[in-house]
Amino acid sequence: MNEFALLIAATLNAGTVLAIAGLGLLINERAGIVNLGAEGMMLVAAIAGYATAVTTGSDWLGFAAGAGAGALLAAAFGLLVIWLNTNQYATGLALSLFGAGLSAFVGIGFVQAKLPDRPNFAIPGLADIPFVGPALFRQHPMVYFAIAFTFGLIWFLYRSRAGLVLRAVGESPESAHALGYPVRGIRLLAVMVGGALCGLAGAYLSVIYTPLWVEGMVAGKGWIALALTTFATWRPARVLLGAYLFGGVTMLQFQLQTQGVDVPSQLLSALPYLATIVVLVLISRNPAWIRVNMPASLGKPFFPGG
Prior knowledge:
single chain; 306 residues; ABC transporter involved in vitamin B12 uptake, BtuC; 14 helices; Nucleoside ABC transporter membrane protein
């Protein structure tokens, strides 16, 4: 029973990285922009956050540095695809490759660096409840932030005027432009917010989840977060649930290894990626369902006055 509680806690911890990045990418795509550069942004943010945390001793400054690095890269991406009308898919892939190379270069001096001792986070009173306490109430505050942000994003998208405008830009930028809304500005802001969230996920990965820096440590999580948006049919609550699903699969491989299950470690390590492929294959069997839920202008350039 205690092992199961620890598995739940580890699932929430692992899923938080995917949830924060996935919600950021969902905001991008709700505005009609596809950013395939999540992996690169998360890598740059991971080294930015880790280097800041090592230098200052503050996790929160590390998170701020990671979010800032993600937003800065996303702004460059946004300027290219929104104002210069470069291809969104090619530019996103270039950003991913650039981020991988830049993070590897910058991070050379931090491979052996050590973070200060981490405090133990626990909610007084609740953390001591048998089973429930270890499973749910001894998490880092960022875990609870991901859950709270999900519900906040649901309210924003479906209950606020600004969220309605964002969705309108993703559905029909021409109509939004005709009504006087600055479509390009809204898209750039959405891209930067999405980049900041991807950056926050990358910083959480290196500062809390691991905590260390090694080259390529994001290890495909940016691509899984990107797949989550389709898996969730662009709904925030489904992104959160999907993140925990993939987080659970990731943790399951370690659980099986510790119990001595006679399965090749390479196969266990591939489980999260196999799960991603299986889910996408199942979803793609019903393309009409995807089209109904997908923002109508997703991936399409917008030319004001064109």
